[in-house]
Specification:
single chain; mainly alpha; 10 helices
């Protein structure tokens, strides 16, 4: 892997991490419902979980999926079911004043595990490995995965901060309900590319 390829990977990491997707929509909802500090484990789970996923895919996991294509179908069904469940949880999140008692943000392990059923994370990992890493040495794969994680963390933090800033507007239970249902609907809509394949 050359310096130019690493730079291109960094640009890809920024663009793909900063654009809307299931992780960012859930973090925005978490920021609005639980605040920035309580969402930190969620953010770290995404960044570190994706780094582990990217390294695993580049280390040969993708070859297993190529050899057994039925795994893609199982993963797709699991992704859709899990994301529909998450959308339901977001839509029915407790009002901010009650959130400490009635709900909790996603944990580090839940967020890390979510990467494995997140269609956008799979697309990002497969693109990063096939286009930018290729058959580079393991040290470059590790460097690419670490770079992706370092770029991802500030990006996901911005989505959480954006959600937190909405807390001022979402003090009214009706507005919060509309916001949560909108976020849930967008999360479900993000499944469209998965369902088309």
């Amino acid at each position: 892997m050359t310096f130019e390829t690493l730079t291109a990977l960094a640009v890809f990491a920024f663009v793909s991490s900063a654009t809307p997707g299931p992780n960012n929509l859930m973090l925005m909802a978490s920021g609005a419902n639980f605040g920035f500090w309580r969402s930190i484990p969620h953010m770290l789970g995404i960044s570190i979980g994706f780094m582990v996923m990217l390294f695993s895919v580049g280390s040969g996991l993708v070859q297993i999926f190529d050899r057994f294509p039925v795994i893609y179908d199982i993963l797709k069904v699991a992704s859709v079911i899990y994301m529909l469940w998450l959308a339901w949880k977001i839509a029915n999140a407790a009002p901010i004043t009650k959130s400490a008692d009635a709900g909790v943000p996603m944990t580090f392990l839940q967020a890390a595990a979510f990467q494995w059923v997140n269609p956008k994370a799979w697309a990002m990992a497969l693109t990063a490995v096939t286009v930018y890493v290729g058959d580079s040495a393991m040290i470059w794969l590790a460097a690419g995965a670490a770079l992706f994680s370092l770029i991802n963390l500030p990006s996901v933090s911005m989505w959480t901060i954006a959600g937190q800033q909405l807390q001022r507007i979402l003090t009214n239970p009706r507005r919060l309900r509309v916001y949560n249902w909108t976020m849930a609907t967008l999360l479900v809509a993000s499944l469209y590319p998965v369902l088309q394949n």
